[in-house]
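Task card 7
Instruction: Convert sequence to structure tokens.
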Amino acid sequence: MNNPIKALDKLESIILKWKENTEVSPMYFASSKIILQELNELAEEKPEKYNLYYTSEKVESLKWSLNSMFGCDTDNGHDFEQHQLWVLENIQSLKSSLCFGKSE
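Output:
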């Protein structure tokens, strides 16, 4: 992966479309998981550049809400929309200068 911000933009687009297009939820879920895996690998490859601890924490939080949106993890009493909001908030955090938003 050469451009984590572009990947996060694509992930955000997927998450925003998900509610409107539930019949393709498995595709959205699988695509999102692949993007997150690649982001995690990038952070692990360059821990000093991408603040590995904070980035990993945000990715894990995002994964939990993503799994809850898809229905394969506990939702802790929160609905789809709440988990969708948390995913979008974590994407913004990952775009920040504390994670992948650092200048080259």
